Amino acid sequence: MRMPVLETDRLVVRPFVVDDLPAVHDLLDVQLGNAEVGTEGALSLAQRERWLRWTVEGYDGFAYLRQPPYGDRAVALRDTGQLVGACGYVPCLGPFDQLPALAVGGSSSRLWSPEFGLYWSILPSYQRRGFATEAGRLLVDWAFSVLHLRRIVAMTSYDNTASIRVMEKLGMRIERNPLPDPPWFQVVGFVTNPGSVDAAPPLMQEEHPPDR
Question: Tens digit of pLDDT for each residue in 180-207?
Fold first, then answer.
């Protein structure tokens, strides 16, 4: 279940190391400190250090328990090694059955269920270059080919057109929650393993600004 380093011509997706602390603090708590990324907000340097050590130790912990390789990975430029973002797999618990396309048996209920989620964040100065899509594609392809997952989801808010565009570029079908609650459960993208019997092409979506 260990996830290897993944590469493209431009990027390297690798495990974080403790020495990444200054760069990851700048990324998540300074540059993206006010961004909506599904957490409770920016952390102090000391708090981010505890998070980073927990993240690094988690790689071995999940592997020891034979669990999926959940957790954040660094997105770095292949040529220079500069950290420009973070991405990873996250367990998502939510009312996915509220979405017509994911309702079990075509009938919606109020029950919650777990899904395998995808996450990304890119430095503002490196957004609109396709890096989020490039890193996300590495994670989707690896999860489908090695973990043999049936489905991967991503979530964002109604007004985050950049993230919605990344979802579309990853081949995700976009679903909007038809109910007002929970308030954070607004837009869900999901992509099904091409080898799955229920795989379907993504819906055509309206154009959005370039991705992050």
Answer: 999 999 999 999 999 876 655 544 444 4
DSSP structural state of residue 12: E
> Token digits for 69?
């390789």
Domains of the chain and CATH, by start: 6-192 (3.40.630.30)
Contact 84, 123 (CB under 8 A): yes
Distance CA 122, CA 212 (A): 6
Residue of 144, 137, 193, 186 whose CA lies nearest to 166: 137
- In the structure, how many helices (H) and strands (E) does the chain have? 4, 8
Dump pLDDT digits (tens) for 6-65. 999 999 999 999 999 999 999 999 999 877 666 667 899 999 999 999 999 999 999 999
Task: Work out the angle between the directed axes of helices 131-142 and 161-169 (0-180°, nearest 10).
Answer: 50
pTM of the predicted structure, to 2 decimals: 0.88
Phi/psi region, residue 140 (left: phi>0; alpha: psi -120 to 50; beta: rest), is: alpha
Say how far residue 47 (Cα) sits from the centre of its chain. 22
**How many other CB atoms are found less than 10 A from the CB of residue 43?**
17
Structure tokens at 21: 């602390």
